[in-house]
Design a protein that fits this description.
The complex is a heterodimer of chains A (about 170) and B (about 280).
Chain A lengths: L1 E4 L4 H6 L5 E10 L2 H12 L12 E3 L27 H6 L4 E4 L5 H10 L2 E4 L5 H5 L2 E8 L8 E15 L10
Parallel strand pairs in A: 1-2, 2-3, 3-4, 4-5
Antiparallel strand pairs in A: 2-7, 5-7, 6-7
Chain B lengths: L3 E4 H17 L3 H13 L3 H20 L9 E9 L2 E4 L3 H15 L24 E7 L4 E8 L1 H4 L3 E5 L4 H16 L7 E9 L1 H12 L10 H15 L14 E11 L4 E8 L4 E6 L1
Helix pairs in contact in B: 1-4, 2-3, 6-8
Classes of the chains: A alpha/beta (about 170), B alpha/beta (about 280).
Chain lengths: ~170, ~280
């Protein structure tokens, strides 16, 4: 199990190989369907983004509400392929990592190779377990989207697996 | 049989409890299947994923938090006794209110948008629930409820096969659908299959099939055999837990059937993730 401190450097990304189990610590941003659509439209219109994504890792997630006394509600990954349409534009803007579940299309993989990016899989449905590694949550943008807003998660030993590495090698079964 | 009066608050409280409980406590059929899968899994990553899913279910039950953040869209199959009269409100409102309270008071995620194409504004209480009601003779109300996450729902499909396709056509469509879904619907999955009826009846049967315990079989031996055969075939596909490889791609295949037209043989495949959350009760 490799312990990785965020933000990711280009060297660390190059060292990560498909199949590596990792524990991520530091901070990540979140975003799923609705937030991606908005970010993508801003990029298409050459407008500034509400969040600086340079060097960030994005987690595809819509958390459940936190119970009193909990930092965050259950927060497992959502299916990544729905973000495929938008991902290359974000990678071109400096995003260095993505966390989700399931397959990616060839355009995303090509963009990952071009931009030196890594795609991690978190375990779909292990939401209560994963939430234990999320220590603090802040809203960064699009609060009106509720669970689909962009949050910052402060994480410690967040469990993930390198599903597609920066050379395009994948362990996802086709 | 005499008319039986039921207060709408009883319906609301019952529905609320159903949805909170199903989201926190996984069925023992699923838990047993996950444990068996962990035991049989040959891929080390797959084994580890299964161990984490079992641990996740334990945490959810202990802390009474949702198993999965996608607490789904609420679907209810109701058998409504024709001798029952609801007092202090309507049945529909009472059910919707129960769903609303479960999702708000139970810290479940609100995942429903008001309009599918244009506004897509979150309704903020996970309503409306989808309610299928059948009127039966009697003075009871039977509710079979489930919450359906959309990672797996999106991988589902309906096909209007015709009679000449035969059993081979049915098998091929089911296996093709599972294969197309691949690693996306959170394997190990539960596959609900509806065969027969009309276009929408097949889909409803498939949904109902995902709400059936996976340690039960279709009462017709031929379909029970088909359930077993399909499960074996799916587990040979190699997607494995979380789609990271392994021999456990599905935990169960449930088939429900209905008579159909001389010209048709509709088949629907409703895919459900390993968090197959459903519960039933009788009022």
């Amino acid at each position: 199990m490799k312990k990785i401190n965020l933000p990711l450097t280009d060297d660390v990304i190059r060292e990560l190989k498909a199949g590596d189990s990792v524990l991520l610590s530091g901070s990540i941003i979140t975003g799923r369907d609705a937030a991606h659509k908005r970010l993508f439209e801003l990029i298409e219109n050459n407008k500034p983004l509400p969040v600086d994504i340079q060097g960030e890792v994005i987690y595809y997630v819509g958390p459940a509400p936190a119970k009193p006394g909990h930092a965050v509600g259950p927060a497992g990954p959502t299916s990544s392929y729905r973000m495929d349409k938008y991902a290359p534009a974000l990678l071109d803007r400096g995003l260095k990592g993505m966390i989700g579940k399931g397959a990616r299309n060839q355009e995303v993989i090509d963009s990952m190779i071009k931009n030196n990016v890594v795609y991690f899989a978190a375990i779909g449905g292990a939401a209560a377990l994963i939430s234990k590694s999320i220590k603090k949550i802040e809203t960064l943008a699009y609060e009106d989207l509720g669970t689909e807003a962009i949050y910052r998660f402060y994480i410690e030993d967040f469990p993930a697996i390198v599903a597609i590495d920066s050379t395009g090698k994948s362990i996802l079964v086709k | 049989m005499e008319i039986r009066k039921i207060d709408s608050a009883v319906i609301t409280d019952t529905v609320k409890k159903l949805f909170m409980d199903m989201n926190y406590f996984i069925g023992d059929d699923i838990l047993n299947a996950l444990k068996n899968a962990e035991h049989s899994e040959t891929s080390p990553i797959g084994k580890n994923v299964l161990a984490q899913l079992i641990e996740n279910n334990k945490i959810a039950a202990e802390e009474e938090v949702p198993i999965c953040q996608d607490t789904g869209m609420a679907v209810l199959f109701v058998e409504y006794g024709d001798r029952v009269v609801i007092e202090n409100g309507s049945f529909e409102d009472a059910v919707q209110d129960g769903v609303r309270r479960a999702y708000i008071d139970g810290y479940l995620r609100k995942s429903v948008v008001n309009d599918p194409v244009f506004e897509r504004v979150n309704t903020k209480d996970n309503t409306p629930a989808i309610i299928y009601t059948t009127i039966v003779h009697g003075d009871k109300i039977k509710i079979l409820a489930g919450c359906k996450g959309f990672g797996s729902e999106n991988m589902s499909s309906v096909k209007m096969l015709t009679p000449s396709a035969g059993i081979e056509g049915v098998k091929k469509f089911i296996l093709d659908t599972v294969k197309y879904a691949g690693p996306n619907p959170c394997p190990p999955i539960v596959v609900g299959v509806g065969i027969g009826g009309t276009f929408e009846k097949a889909a409803m049967l498939a949904k109902k099939a995902t709400f059936r315990r996976i340690d039960t079989h279709n009462p017709d031996e031929r379909y029970a055999e088909l359930e077993k055969e399909l499960l074996d075939e799916i587990n040979k596909m190699g997607f494995g837990p979380a789609g990271l490889g392994g021999i456990n791609t599905a935990l169960g295949v449930n088939i429900e059937t209905y008579p159909t037209h001389i010209a048709g043989m509709p088949v629907a495949v409703n895919i459900c993730c390993h968090a197959a959350r459903h519960k039933e009760t009788e009022i």
